[in-house]
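Page header: ASSEMBLY MODEL / two components / 478 residues total.
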Amino acid sequence: MFSIKITRRQFLKWLSASAAVAGLSQTDLLKLKEALAVGPAPVPGMPLGTLARVVWITGQDCGGCATTLLNFLANPADLDPILNAVATTPIPAWLTDIDALYPQGADGDIDIGEVVLEIVSIEWAYIVMAASGDVANDYLLSIRDDGNYVLMMDGAIPINNHGKYCQIMDVKGHVAKAGKPWNNYMEHYHDDDLGDRTQITMAGGALWLAEKADAVIAMGTCNSFGGIPAAKGAVTGAKSAWEVINPVYPGLTIVNVPGCAPNPDWFIHTVAAYLVGALVPNLNTDLDHKGRPKNVSKLIYNSASYAFCEDDPRRDIGSATPLINCQKKAGNEVGRCMKQVGCNGWMVGPAHIRPDCPTRKWNPFEDHSLNNWCVGNNMPCQGCASPGFPDWCSPFYAETKGTWRGYSYTS
Amino acid sequence: MGKIIIDPVNRMEGHIGIDADINAVNDDDQKGYVTGNVKLKGNMFRGFEQLLKKRDPRDAMVITQRH
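Prediction written out in full:
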C-alpha cells in the first residue's frame, strides 16, 4: 500500500488549521490530541485506547465514494497534500502549543495509513479488505455481536422486491429472527454442503448492522439523499440511509456526508469529530429541509455566510448580464457566469447544499495552485451535494429551476 | 462433491458473488482440477437505462459518469 508520510504533529496541525471549517472547538481539539496520543502507540506497551471501529457496507454505488477516499489515502505521486493544506492555511495563534507538545520527530511518525488502520479501524469494507467470502463475513458476524462500531455506508439502498436489486453478502447461519425489521430483506436457504445460509441485501444489511451501531455515516449523495439511483425513472426503490434506518431506529445518529463524490477531507473531518465525541448533531437545530441531520460542519455544508461563487455571488442573481468571474481562472480575461447554462453555484436556498469546493478544492498537487474544482475548469456546478440531485437540476445544461418539489432554491 | 460460496468478492468495485460446485476427481491426470458448475453473479442493479429515459440527451454525460 502506498502511504503518505505525515507525523502525528502534522496531522494534528492539519486538523487544527481547518478546525474552524470542521466545526471543532478548542476543547474538541484537546480531546483529539488525547485520542491521538493513545491511538497508534509509539511506545511499546502503551495502551491503544479506543479505536473508532468502522463497518463499511456498500449499496447501489459507482465506486466514486471509495475512490475519493482511497485517493486521499494512497496517492504515490503526491507525498504530502496535508502539509500543503497546512502551508496555505493560516493557523490560529492559540495552536502554537502543538509544536511544543508534539515536536517533529520526537513523538514517532505516523502515516495516513495508520490513521485509517489504527485510529479509525475499518473492520469490514469489501473494497479494501484482504479477505473475501465467509472469512470476512464470519468476522463481520463477530463484530456485530460485539457492537460498538460505526456503520458507514455508501450507495443507495433499494427496497423494492425485498431489496434484491442489491445483495451485499451471503453469510453462514440464519441471521433474521422473528419480528426483526430486516426480515423482509433477507432470504434464508439451506445448502446440502454448506448448511443454513442467509442472503443479505443492502436494505437488510443496513438495518441489521444499524441495530448495534453507535452511529451511521452516510457517505455520498446516494446514501445521504438517494442520489442517482433514486432519480426519476428508477425502478429499484432506492432510498437514503435516513429514509430506511430512521423510521426503525429513530434515536440513532445519522450523519450525512453528501457529495458525488464527497471530498475526502469531509469524511476525515467527520471521523475527527467522532473521535472527540462531537458526532452528535443537535436534532433540533441541525436538520435539513427533510429532517435529516446535516454534517457536523455547517461550514463545510450550507453555511449561511458562505460565498459559493468565486466573486461576489449574489449581486447578479436574476440580472441579464451576470459578471461573475467564474471562467476567469481558466485563462479568460473576462469571466462569464454559467448560471444560464446550468450552474448551481448561485443557489442560496436552504434546500441547496453548497460545500466548500471553491476554497478547499480537489486533487491536491504538490503545487497547491493546481488544485481545482468544477467551476474553475469551466464546468457548471451540478449541485451534486444537494438533496434533489440529480432531478432538481436536470436538464443539467439549462438554467436550473428555482424550485424543486415545492422547495425554493433561491431564498 | 462440494460447494463454495464467495460473496462478497473483495477488492474490486461491484457486487460480485461466486457459487461453485466442485466435483472431486480421482483420475490422476485431472487431480486438482475444479470441474462442475461455477456461477458468477452480479448482485447489483440500478437501471441506468430507465434513468435516462425522457431526459435531455446531454444529461447522459452527467448521469452515466456515475455508473
